[in-house]
Design brief:
- With about 140 residues, the protein is an alpha+beta fold.
- The chain has one domain (about 5-140): 2-Layer Sandwich (Alpha-Beta Plaits).
- The protein is built from 7 helices and 4 strands.
- The protein has helices at about 10-15, 20-30, 45-50, 60-65, 80-90, 105, 125-135; strands spanning about 5-10, 35-40, 70-80, 120.
- The chain has a 4-stranded antiparallel β-sheet with strand order 2-3-1-4, sandwiched between helices.
- The chain starts with a strand and ends in a 9-residue tail after the last helix.
- The protein binds adenosine-5'-diphosphate.
- Adenosine-5'-diphosphate (ADP) binds near residues 93, 115 and 116.
Length: about 140
Amino acid sequence: MSTEKSLILVKPDGVQCGHIGHVISRIENRRYEIKALKMVNATEEQLRQHYSQLVDKPYYADIEKFMTSGPIVAIIAEGNEIIDTFRKMAGPTNPSEAMAGTIRGDFARAWGPGPIKNVVHSSDSVESAEKEIKIWFPERINTEN
Ligand code: ADP
């Protein structure tokens, strides 16, 4: 058991389709603490850092186009074991495989060729969360929490 922070993004499809509140409610319903929250327009440089493991993939251009198609909401949420738990709450990457009750299962679906639009991102490890928080909340780098 450990208190962790996760970096959660409501992606452009989630913002455009009115799911900011739904994602925030899912966080609050589980009584995780929202430590920071802001709306931003992602830059190509932020996305290259955030998706550094995917920049060489053939579909990276699709990801970049999608993630710059509108504003996103960046959230730092904290709680015991939030990283693994929130990934389960989000559901699998492919919305077609996401069960009802998960965020992607309730608010996303397959749209055909192109980027996978799946409403949310959440960190997959403590190390990723630390890296991602610096990318989206650079102003917090020297703060305690
Ligand atoms: P997750 O977001 O579930 O952690 P990944 O880290 O594997 O998944 O991928 C990051 C994001 O890139 C996905 O959420 C999705 O939006 C997009 N993506 C992943 N794989 C593909 C693909 N094969 N084609 C198009 N977009 C993809």
